[in-house]
Amino acid sequence: MADRITDIGPPKYDEMWPQYIKDNYGKWKYHEILEPGVLKHVTEDGFELFTVRCGGTRLMTTLHLEDICKIADQYCDGCFRFTTRNNIEFMVTDTEKLEALKKALDDNGNLPKGGTGACVTNIVHTQGWVHCHTPAIDASGPVKAVMDDLFEYWNSHKLPAQVRISLACCLNMCGAVHCSDIAILGVHRKPPVIEHSHLDKICEIPTAIASCPTAAIKPAKVDDYKSVQVNAERCMFCGNCYTMCPSMPLADAEGDGIALWVGGKVSNSRTMPMFSKLAVPYIPNEPPRWDTTVKTIRTILEAYANGANRYERMGEWINRIGWERFFEVTELEFTEHHIDDYRLAVTTWRNSTQFKF
Amino acid sequence: MPTVTYKGKTYEVDEDGFLQDPEVWDENFAHYVKDSEGISELTDEHWKVINYLQDYYKKNGIAPMVRIMTKVTGFKLKKIYELFPSGPGKGACKMAGLAKPTGCV
Ligand code: SF4
Ligand code: SF4
Question: Which PANTHER family match (chain A) (predicted)?
Fold first, then answer.
Protein backbone atom coordinates (compact mmCIF):
# COMPACT_ATOMS: atom_id res chain seq x y z
CA MET A 1 0.00 0.00 0.00
CA ALA A 2 3.03 2.28 0.16
CA ASP A 3 2.93 5.21 -2.28
CA ARG A 4 -0.46 4.11 -3.57
CA ILE A 5 -2.37 6.86 -5.39
CA THR A 6 -6.13 6.47 -5.50
CA ASP A 7 -9.43 8.27 -6.21
CA ILE A 8 -7.94 10.88 -8.50
CA GLY A 9 -10.54 10.40 -11.25
CA PRO A 10 -10.00 11.13 -14.93
CA PRO A 11 -8.12 14.23 -16.06
CA LYS A 12 -10.40 17.28 -16.25
CA TYR A 13 -12.37 17.16 -19.49
CA ASP A 14 -10.92 20.38 -20.90
CA GLU A 15 -7.29 19.63 -20.09
CA MET A 16 -6.59 18.26 -23.58
CA TRP A 17 -8.68 20.69 -25.57
CA PRO A 18 -6.81 22.62 -28.23
CA GLN A 19 -6.70 26.36 -27.52
CA TYR A 20 -9.27 27.24 -30.21
CA ILE A 21 -11.85 24.95 -28.58
CA LYS A 22 -11.22 26.63 -25.22
CA ASP A 23 -11.55 30.06 -26.82
CA ASN A 24 -14.82 29.25 -28.57
CA TYR A 25 -16.48 27.08 -25.97
CA GLY A 26 -20.23 27.73 -25.87
CA LYS A 27 -20.17 30.17 -28.79
CA TRP A 28 -21.09 27.89 -31.67
CA LYS A 29 -23.74 29.29 -34.00
CA TYR A 30 -24.33 26.68 -36.69
CA HIS A 31 -22.73 23.75 -38.45
CA GLU A 32 -22.88 22.09 -41.83
CA ILE A 33 -21.67 18.87 -43.39
CA LEU A 34 -19.36 19.79 -46.26
CA GLU A 35 -19.01 16.27 -47.62
CA PRO A 36 -19.22 12.75 -46.14
CA GLY A 37 -16.91 12.73 -43.13
CA VAL A 38 -16.23 16.49 -43.05
CA LEU A 39 -18.04 18.93 -40.74
CA LYS A 40 -17.76 22.67 -40.38
CA HIS A 41 -18.73 24.50 -37.18
CA VAL A 42 -18.98 28.29 -37.13
CA THR A 43 -19.10 30.57 -34.07
CA GLU A 44 -20.96 33.83 -33.54
CA ASP A 45 -17.71 35.68 -34.32
CA GLY A 46 -17.25 33.83 -37.58
CA PHE A 47 -14.52 31.47 -36.39
CA GLU A 48 -14.55 28.25 -38.44
CA LEU A 49 -13.65 24.77 -37.28
CA PHE A 50 -13.36 21.81 -39.63
CA THR A 51 -13.71 18.26 -38.37
CA VAL A 52 -12.76 15.16 -40.31
CA ARG A 53 -14.33 11.96 -39.02
CA CYS A 54 -12.60 8.65 -39.71
CA GLY A 55 -13.66 5.09 -39.12
CA GLY A 56 -12.10 3.37 -36.12
CA THR A 57 -11.90 -0.37 -35.59
CA ARG A 58 -12.35 0.18 -31.83
CA LEU A 59 -10.03 -2.73 -31.09
CA MET A 60 -6.69 -1.25 -32.06
CA THR A 61 -2.98 -1.64 -31.48
CA THR A 62 -0.66 0.93 -29.99
CA LEU A 63 0.98 1.07 -33.42
CA HIS A 64 -2.27 2.25 -34.99
CA LEU A 65 -2.70 4.78 -32.18
CA GLU A 66 0.80 5.98 -32.87
CA ASP A 67 -0.21 6.51 -36.52
CA ILE A 68 -3.21 8.52 -35.37
CA CYS A 69 -1.04 10.60 -33.04
CA LYS A 70 1.43 11.30 -35.83
CA ILE A 71 -1.33 12.71 -38.03
CA ALA A 72 -2.66 14.73 -35.09
CA ASP A 73 0.86 16.06 -34.40
CA GLN A 74 1.40 17.06 -37.98
CA TYR A 75 -1.95 18.70 -38.75
CA CYS A 76 -3.95 19.27 -35.55
CA ASP A 77 -1.56 20.62 -32.85
CA GLY A 78 -1.36 17.13 -31.39
CA CYS A 79 -5.10 16.92 -30.71
CA PHE A 80 -7.76 14.45 -31.82
CA ARG A 81 -10.81 12.88 -30.25
CA PHE A 82 -12.87 9.69 -30.25
CA THR A 83 -16.64 9.84 -30.82
CA THR A 84 -19.34 7.97 -28.91
CA ARG A 85 -19.39 5.43 -31.75
CA ASN A 86 -15.62 5.00 -31.59
CA ASN A 87 -14.82 6.96 -34.71
CA ILE A 88 -11.81 9.25 -34.73
CA GLU A 89 -12.10 13.00 -35.32
CA PHE A 90 -9.30 15.31 -36.40
CA MET A 91 -9.88 19.07 -36.27
CA VAL A 92 -8.26 21.95 -38.17
CA THR A 93 -9.03 25.66 -38.40
CA ASP A 94 -8.44 26.54 -42.04
CA THR A 95 -9.28 25.06 -45.42
CA GLU A 96 -5.69 24.72 -46.52
CA LYS A 97 -4.84 22.52 -43.57
CA LEU A 98 -8.11 20.66 -44.14
CA GLU A 99 -7.06 19.65 -47.65
CA ALA A 100 -3.63 18.56 -46.41
CA LEU A 101 -5.22 16.57 -43.58
CA LYS A 102 -7.68 14.87 -45.93
CA LYS A 103 -4.84 13.86 -48.20
CA ALA A 104 -2.79 12.52 -45.29
CA LEU A 105 -5.75 10.41 -44.17
CA ASP A 106 -6.29 9.06 -47.68
CA ASP A 107 -2.61 8.22 -47.94
CA ASN A 108 -2.71 6.45 -44.61
CA GLY A 109 -5.33 4.02 -45.94
CA ASN A 110 -6.45 2.82 -42.50
CA LEU A 111 -8.51 5.88 -41.59
CA PRO A 112 -11.47 6.06 -44.01
CA LYS A 113 -13.40 9.34 -43.94
CA GLY A 114 -17.15 9.17 -43.42
CA GLY A 115 -19.74 8.47 -40.77
CA THR A 116 -21.64 11.75 -41.05
CA GLY A 117 -25.23 12.57 -41.98
CA ALA A 118 -27.66 10.01 -43.37
CA CYS A 119 -25.13 7.21 -43.43
CA VAL A 120 -24.29 3.91 -41.81
CA THR A 121 -21.72 5.00 -39.26
CA ASN A 122 -19.53 2.83 -37.06
CA ILE A 123 -21.01 -0.29 -35.45
CA VAL A 124 -21.09 -0.13 -31.65
CA HIS A 125 -19.92 -3.58 -30.59
CA THR A 126 -18.61 -5.80 -27.82
CA GLN A 127 -15.88 -8.29 -26.92
CA GLY A 128 -16.92 -11.53 -28.62
CA TRP A 129 -14.43 -14.34 -28.79
CA VAL A 130 -11.59 -11.87 -28.29
CA HIS A 131 -12.12 -11.51 -24.57
CA CYS A 132 -15.52 -12.40 -22.99
CA HIS A 133 -16.59 -15.77 -21.59
CA THR A 134 -20.36 -15.59 -22.27
CA PRO A 135 -20.58 -14.76 -26.02
CA ALA A 136 -22.71 -16.69 -28.50
CA ILE A 137 -21.02 -15.01 -31.46
CA ASP A 138 -17.94 -12.97 -32.23
CA ALA A 139 -17.98 -9.16 -32.32
CA SER A 140 -15.00 -7.84 -34.31
CA GLY A 141 -15.44 -10.48 -37.05
CA PRO A 142 -19.09 -9.80 -37.98
CA VAL A 143 -18.54 -6.04 -37.62
CA LYS A 144 -15.71 -6.11 -40.15
CA ALA A 145 -17.80 -8.24 -42.53
CA VAL A 146 -20.87 -5.99 -42.30
CA MET A 147 -18.91 -2.74 -42.61
CA ASP A 148 -17.04 -4.12 -45.64
CA ASP A 149 -20.35 -4.83 -47.31
CA LEU A 150 -21.98 -1.51 -46.34
CA PHE A 151 -18.92 0.65 -46.94
CA GLU A 152 -20.73 2.54 -49.72
CA TYR A 153 -23.17 3.77 -47.09
CA TRP A 154 -20.39 4.81 -44.72
CA ASN A 155 -18.97 7.52 -46.95
CA SER A 156 -22.17 8.76 -48.58
CA HIS A 157 -25.42 10.40 -47.55
CA LYS A 158 -27.81 8.39 -49.69
CA LEU A 159 -30.06 6.96 -46.95
CA PRO A 160 -33.33 8.54 -45.76
CA ALA A 161 -31.81 9.09 -42.29
CA GLN A 162 -28.86 7.84 -40.29
CA VAL A 163 -28.86 4.08 -39.67
CA ARG A 164 -27.30 2.94 -36.43
CA ILE A 165 -26.10 -0.66 -36.44
CA SER A 166 -24.96 -2.27 -33.20
CA LEU A 167 -23.76 -5.71 -32.17
CA ALA A 168 -23.76 -7.55 -28.85
CA CYS A 169 -22.37 -11.08 -28.61
CA CYS A 170 -24.88 -12.20 -25.96
CA LEU A 171 -28.17 -10.86 -24.66
CA ASN A 172 -26.52 -9.03 -21.81
CA MET A 173 -26.58 -6.53 -24.67
CA CYS A 174 -23.52 -4.56 -23.64
CA GLY A 175 -23.83 -1.50 -25.83
CA ALA A 176 -26.76 -0.36 -27.91
CA VAL A 177 -28.47 -3.32 -29.62
CA HIS A 178 -31.75 -2.74 -27.80
CA CYS A 179 -32.05 0.78 -29.22
CA SER A 180 -30.53 0.65 -32.72
CA ASP A 181 -31.97 0.78 -36.22
CA ILE A 182 -30.40 -2.59 -36.95
CA ALA A 183 -29.03 -4.83 -34.20
CA ILE A 184 -26.94 -7.98 -34.40
CA LEU A 185 -27.35 -10.15 -31.32
CA GLY A 186 -25.68 -13.40 -30.29
CA VAL A 187 -28.18 -16.06 -29.14
CA HIS A 188 -27.99 -19.63 -27.84
CA ARG A 189 -30.49 -22.39 -28.66
CA LYS A 190 -29.56 -25.06 -26.12
CA PRO A 191 -29.96 -25.17 -22.33
CA PRO A 192 -26.89 -25.10 -20.09
CA VAL A 193 -24.84 -28.23 -19.44
CA ILE A 194 -24.64 -28.74 -15.68
CA GLU A 195 -21.37 -29.85 -14.16
CA HIS A 196 -22.84 -31.42 -11.03
CA SER A 197 -19.63 -32.70 -9.44
CA HIS A 198 -18.27 -29.25 -8.58
CA LEU A 199 -21.23 -26.90 -9.00
CA ASP A 200 -21.80 -26.47 -5.29
CA LYS A 201 -18.12 -25.80 -4.71
CA ILE A 202 -17.69 -22.88 -7.08
CA CYS A 203 -21.26 -21.53 -7.42
CA GLU A 204 -23.68 -19.94 -5.01
CA ILE A 205 -26.71 -22.09 -5.77
CA PRO A 206 -29.29 -19.50 -4.60
CA THR A 207 -27.70 -16.93 -6.89
CA ALA A 208 -27.92 -19.28 -9.87
CA ILE A 209 -31.57 -20.03 -9.13
CA ALA A 210 -32.43 -16.34 -8.76
CA SER A 211 -30.66 -15.48 -12.02
CA CYS A 212 -33.21 -17.29 -14.17
CA PRO A 213 -35.89 -15.02 -15.69
CA THR A 214 -38.25 -17.95 -16.32
CA ALA A 215 -37.65 -19.84 -13.06
CA ALA A 216 -36.33 -22.88 -14.91
CA ILE A 217 -33.72 -23.69 -12.27
CA LYS A 218 -34.35 -25.51 -9.01
CA PRO A 219 -32.04 -26.95 -6.39
CA ALA A 220 -31.51 -30.69 -6.70
CA LYS A 221 -29.42 -33.51 -5.33
CA VAL A 222 -27.75 -35.35 -8.21
CA ASP A 223 -25.61 -38.43 -7.46
CA ASP A 224 -25.12 -37.20 -3.91
CA TYR A 225 -23.93 -33.83 -5.14
CA LYS A 226 -25.71 -30.67 -4.08
CA SER A 227 -26.54 -29.13 -7.41
CA VAL A 228 -29.33 -27.71 -9.59
CA GLN A 229 -31.71 -28.98 -12.23
CA VAL A 230 -32.85 -27.07 -15.32
CA ASN A 231 -36.29 -27.63 -16.73
CA ALA A 232 -35.40 -27.54 -20.43
CA GLU A 233 -39.02 -26.77 -21.35
CA ARG A 234 -38.83 -23.52 -19.42
CA CYS A 235 -35.29 -22.55 -20.46
CA MET A 236 -34.93 -19.99 -23.24
CA PHE A 237 -31.13 -20.11 -23.33
CA CYS A 238 -30.40 -16.62 -22.03
CA GLY A 239 -27.18 -17.77 -20.35
CA ASN A 240 -27.81 -15.69 -17.26
CA CYS A 241 -27.21 -18.68 -15.00
CA TYR A 242 -23.80 -19.23 -16.57
CA THR A 243 -22.89 -15.62 -15.87
CA MET A 244 -23.56 -16.30 -12.19
CA CYS A 245 -22.40 -19.94 -12.05
CA PRO A 246 -19.33 -21.18 -13.97
CA SER A 247 -20.63 -24.77 -13.76
CA MET A 248 -23.52 -24.09 -16.18
CA PRO A 249 -21.88 -23.43 -19.57
CA LEU A 250 -24.13 -23.32 -22.64
CA ALA A 251 -22.01 -22.14 -25.59
CA ASP A 252 -22.45 -24.53 -28.48
CA ALA A 253 -20.97 -24.36 -31.97
CA GLU A 254 -24.13 -25.57 -33.74
CA GLY A 255 -26.69 -24.08 -31.42
CA ASP A 256 -25.32 -20.54 -31.22
CA GLY A 257 -25.96 -17.88 -33.81
CA ILE A 258 -27.27 -14.44 -34.66
CA ALA A 259 -30.66 -12.80 -34.23
CA LEU A 260 -31.34 -9.54 -36.05
CA TRP A 261 -33.42 -6.76 -34.50
CA VAL A 262 -34.68 -3.57 -36.13
CA GLY A 263 -36.36 -0.26 -35.49
CA GLY A 264 -34.83 1.08 -32.28
CA LYS A 265 -33.66 4.64 -31.71
CA VAL A 266 -32.60 6.82 -28.78
CA SER A 267 -33.23 10.32 -30.09
CA ASN A 268 -36.39 12.25 -29.28
CA SER A 269 -36.66 13.84 -32.68
CA ARG A 270 -40.17 13.58 -34.18
CA THR A 271 -41.02 10.36 -32.30
CA MET A 272 -40.14 8.95 -28.89
CA PRO A 273 -37.18 6.63 -28.42
CA MET A 274 -37.96 3.04 -29.39
CA PHE A 275 -36.70 -0.42 -28.57
CA SER A 276 -35.54 -2.53 -31.48
CA LYS A 277 -37.74 -5.54 -32.28
CA LEU A 278 -37.02 -9.03 -33.56
CA ALA A 279 -36.70 -9.32 -37.35
CA VAL A 280 -34.78 -12.58 -37.80
CA PRO A 281 -34.72 -15.09 -34.92
CA TYR A 282 -31.73 -17.13 -36.02
CA ILE A 283 -28.90 -17.09 -38.52
CA PRO A 284 -26.08 -19.61 -38.03
CA ASN A 285 -22.63 -18.43 -37.05
CA GLU A 286 -20.62 -18.39 -40.26
CA PRO A 287 -17.06 -17.28 -39.47
CA PRO A 288 -15.05 -15.65 -40.82
CA ARG A 289 -17.40 -13.58 -43.05
CA TRP A 290 -20.93 -14.30 -41.71
CA ASP A 291 -22.30 -14.21 -45.28
CA THR A 292 -25.98 -14.83 -44.47
CA THR A 293 -25.98 -12.14 -41.78
CA VAL A 294 -24.28 -9.66 -44.07
CA LYS A 295 -26.74 -10.41 -46.88
CA THR A 296 -29.79 -10.17 -44.64
CA ILE A 297 -28.68 -6.83 -43.20
CA ARG A 298 -28.23 -5.46 -46.70
CA THR A 299 -31.73 -6.69 -47.64
CA ILE A 300 -33.25 -4.88 -44.66
CA LEU A 301 -31.22 -1.74 -45.27
CA GLU A 302 -32.14 -1.58 -48.96
CA ALA A 303 -35.83 -2.17 -48.29
CA TYR A 304 -35.69 0.71 -45.83
CA ALA A 305 -33.70 2.94 -48.22
CA ASN A 306 -36.28 2.32 -50.96
CA GLY A 307 -39.36 2.64 -48.81
CA ALA A 308 -38.72 5.28 -46.15
CA ASN A 309 -39.46 8.97 -46.46
CA ARG A 310 -36.75 11.54 -45.94
CA TYR A 311 -35.68 11.84 -42.26
CA GLU A 312 -37.61 8.70 -41.35
CA ARG A 313 -35.65 6.33 -39.13
CA MET A 314 -35.98 2.56 -39.56
CA GLY A 315 -38.47 2.25 -36.69
CA GLU A 316 -40.57 5.18 -37.88
CA TRP A 317 -40.74 3.69 -41.35
CA ILE A 318 -41.85 0.30 -40.02
CA ASN A 319 -44.45 1.88 -37.75
CA ARG A 320 -45.85 3.82 -40.70
CA ILE A 321 -46.11 0.88 -43.11
CA GLY A 322 -46.92 -1.71 -40.42
CA TRP A 323 -44.98 -4.80 -39.44
CA GLU A 324 -46.85 -7.10 -41.83
CA ARG A 325 -45.71 -4.86 -44.69
CA PHE A 326 -42.16 -4.83 -43.29
CA PHE A 327 -42.00 -8.62 -43.48
CA GLU A 328 -43.48 -8.48 -46.97
CA VAL A 329 -41.04 -5.96 -48.45
CA THR A 330 -37.99 -7.54 -46.82
CA GLU A 331 -39.23 -11.06 -47.64
CA LEU A 332 -38.14 -12.12 -44.16
CA GLU A 333 -40.01 -15.07 -42.73
CA PHE A 334 -42.42 -14.38 -39.87
CA THR A 335 -42.39 -17.24 -37.35
CA GLU A 336 -43.78 -18.10 -33.94
CA HIS A 337 -40.47 -16.88 -32.50
CA HIS A 338 -41.47 -13.33 -33.34
CA ILE A 339 -44.52 -13.40 -31.09
CA ASP A 340 -43.70 -12.11 -27.63
CA ASP A 341 -44.46 -14.59 -24.85
CA TYR A 342 -42.69 -12.99 -21.88
CA ARG A 343 -44.74 -11.53 -19.03
CA LEU A 344 -46.03 -8.31 -20.64
CA ALA A 345 -46.38 -10.04 -24.00
CA VAL A 346 -50.07 -9.24 -24.29
CA THR A 347 -49.29 -5.55 -24.81
CA THR A 348 -47.45 -6.44 -28.03
CA TRP A 349 -50.31 -8.40 -29.62
CA ARG A 350 -52.78 -6.63 -31.86
CA ASN A 351 -55.99 -5.58 -30.19
CA SER A 352 -57.49 -4.13 -33.32
CA THR A 353 -59.08 -5.12 -36.59
CA GLN A 354 -56.67 -2.81 -38.41
CA PHE A 355 -54.22 -4.74 -40.52
CA LYS A 356 -53.16 -5.08 -44.13
CA PHE A 357 -53.68 -8.29 -46.09
CA MET B 1 -5.98 -26.69 -11.63
CA PRO B 2 -3.12 -24.88 -9.93
CA THR B 3 -2.37 -25.66 -6.31
CA VAL B 4 -0.65 -23.78 -3.55
CA THR B 5 1.23 -25.33 -0.68
CA TYR B 6 1.36 -23.52 2.62
CA LYS B 7 2.68 -24.82 5.91
CA GLY B 8 2.76 -28.35 4.54
CA LYS B 9 -0.80 -28.41 3.24
CA THR B 10 -1.79 -28.26 -0.43
CA TYR B 11 -4.85 -26.30 -1.55
CA GLU B 12 -6.48 -26.44 -4.95
CA VAL B 13 -7.12 -22.91 -6.18
CA ASP B 14 -8.19 -21.27 -9.44
CA GLU B 15 -6.08 -18.85 -11.48
CA ASP B 16 -7.17 -15.99 -9.20
CA GLY B 17 -6.19 -17.84 -6.04
CA PHE B 18 -9.73 -18.65 -4.88
CA LEU B 19 -10.13 -21.94 -3.06
CA GLN B 20 -11.82 -24.56 -5.27
CA ASP B 21 -13.66 -26.28 -2.42
CA PRO B 22 -14.92 -24.26 0.56
CA GLU B 23 -14.80 -27.40 2.73
CA VAL B 24 -11.02 -27.57 2.46
CA TRP B 25 -10.68 -24.18 4.15
CA ASP B 26 -8.72 -23.82 7.37
CA GLU B 27 -7.11 -20.95 9.19
CA ASN B 28 -3.82 -21.50 7.45
CA PHE B 29 -5.44 -20.74 4.12
CA ALA B 30 -6.42 -17.31 5.46
CA HIS B 31 -2.80 -16.79 6.48
CA TYR B 32 -1.61 -17.83 3.03
CA VAL B 33 -3.97 -15.30 1.33
CA LYS B 34 -2.92 -12.66 3.84
CA ASP B 35 0.65 -12.81 2.57
CA SER B 36 -0.36 -12.47 -1.10
CA GLU B 37 -2.70 -9.60 -0.18
CA GLY B 38 -0.01 -7.60 1.56
CA ILE B 39 -1.56 -7.84 5.02
CA SER B 40 1.08 -8.18 7.71
CA GLU B 41 -1.05 -9.63 10.49
CA LEU B 42 -4.58 -10.96 10.93
CA THR B 43 -6.17 -9.03 13.78
CA ASP B 44 -9.39 -9.75 15.66
CA GLU B 45 -11.10 -7.37 13.28
CA HIS B 46 -9.99 -9.43 10.29
CA TRP B 47 -11.24 -12.59 11.98
CA LYS B 48 -14.55 -10.97 12.78
CA VAL B 49 -15.14 -10.39 9.07
CA ILE B 50 -13.81 -13.78 7.98
CA ASN B 51 -15.89 -15.65 10.57
CA TYR B 52 -18.99 -13.66 9.67
CA LEU B 53 -18.54 -14.43 5.94
CA GLN B 54 -18.14 -18.12 6.69
CA ASP B 55 -21.20 -18.22 8.92
CA TYR B 56 -23.35 -16.40 6.43
CA TYR B 57 -22.17 -18.61 3.57
CA LYS B 58 -22.88 -21.80 5.52
CA LYS B 59 -26.34 -20.62 6.47
CA ASN B 60 -27.45 -19.05 3.17
CA GLY B 61 -25.29 -20.58 0.45
CA ILE B 62 -24.31 -17.14 -0.82
CA ALA B 63 -21.92 -14.38 0.14
CA PRO B 64 -23.66 -11.49 1.91
CA MET B 65 -24.34 -8.23 0.11
CA VAL B 66 -21.86 -5.55 1.12
CA ARG B 67 -24.59 -3.60 2.91
CA ILE B 68 -25.46 -6.59 5.08
CA MET B 69 -21.84 -7.30 5.82
CA THR B 70 -21.12 -3.73 6.93
CA LYS B 71 -24.29 -3.60 8.99
CA VAL B 72 -23.66 -6.83 10.88
CA THR B 73 -19.93 -6.42 11.43
CA GLY B 74 -20.28 -2.71 12.20
CA PHE B 75 -17.37 -1.96 9.85
CA LYS B 76 -18.02 0.72 7.24
CA LEU B 77 -16.88 -0.12 3.70
CA LYS B 78 -13.88 2.18 4.17
CA LYS B 79 -12.82 0.14 7.18
CA ILE B 80 -13.28 -3.12 5.26
CA TYR B 81 -10.88 -1.77 2.65
CA GLU B 82 -8.41 -0.82 5.34
CA LEU B 83 -8.54 -4.39 6.63
CA PHE B 84 -8.65 -6.01 3.18
CA PRO B 85 -7.00 -3.72 0.59
CA SER B 86 -8.45 -5.71 -2.35
CA GLY B 87 -11.94 -5.20 -0.97
CA PRO B 88 -14.70 -7.43 0.38
CA GLY B 89 -14.77 -9.72 -2.70
CA LYS B 90 -11.23 -10.30 -3.87
CA GLY B 91 -9.83 -9.82 -0.39
CA ALA B 92 -12.17 -10.95 2.38
CA CYS B 93 -14.18 -13.61 0.49
CA LYS B 94 -11.03 -15.16 -0.92
CA MET B 95 -9.52 -15.29 2.54
CA ALA B 96 -12.68 -16.85 3.97
CA GLY B 97 -12.61 -19.56 1.30
CA LEU B 98 -15.90 -18.51 -0.34
CA ALA B 99 -16.67 -19.09 -4.01
CA LYS B 100 -15.24 -16.50 -6.37
CA PRO B 101 -17.67 -13.62 -7.00
CA THR B 102 -19.36 -13.93 -10.41
CA GLY B 103 -21.37 -11.75 -12.76
CA CYS B 104 -20.16 -8.59 -14.49
CA VAL B 105 -17.66 -7.63 -11.80
S1 SF4 C 1 -22.63 -8.77 -24.87
FE2 SF4 C 1 -22.38 -10.56 -23.54
S3 SF4 C 1 -20.74 -11.77 -24.44
FE4 SF4 C 1 -20.67 -9.73 -25.35
S5 SF4 C 1 -19.20 -8.57 -24.10
FE6 SF4 C 1 -21.22 -8.20 -23.23
S7 SF4 C 1 -21.46 -9.77 -21.63
FE8 SF4 C 1 -19.77 -10.41 -22.95
S1 SF4 D 1 -30.13 -20.24 -19.68
FE2 SF4 D 1 -31.49 -18.63 -18.85
S3 SF4 D 1 -33.54 -19.51 -19.01
FE4 SF4 D 1 -32.09 -21.20 -19.19
S5 SF4 D 1 -31.83 -21.97 -17.12
FE6 SF4 D 1 -30.20 -20.49 -17.45
S7 SF4 D 1 -31.03 -18.57 -16.65
FE8 SF4 D 1 -32.76 -19.94 -16.95
Answer: SULFITE REDUCTASE [NADPH] SUBUNIT BETA, SULFITE REDUCTASE [NADPH] SUBUNIT BETA-RELATED
